[in-house]
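Shipment paperwork, digital attachment
Item: protein structure file
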Amino acid sequence: MSAASSSRPLHTPDGRYIVVRQRLWRAANPTLSAQRRQHLTEALMHARRAVKTAQRDGDASALIQARQAVQAAKVALGERGPVWWTDGASDYNRYLVKNTPYAAWFSQLP
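Attachment content:
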């Protein structure tokens, strides 16, 4: 089964996760405005480039700052930190799909 057959990630039916190589990754909070999401995504990409640069340059201080910026952007997007849903459902971020309540849904995909 390959969920990577399209350029858009496969989302769970409730939209809480994307599936990458049979693993769940928390999706961004869908209640963010398009403008806010775009701004945070740009900040995340900038921070990821800063991580790469700091690693290449061997700059430990810059690497710490860049990783903190990645974390802040991911938390603001809702991909890390407290869950963005409000129904009390558990967080299955980074779990293999087969080990979650999404297993039956995933196993029925083409």
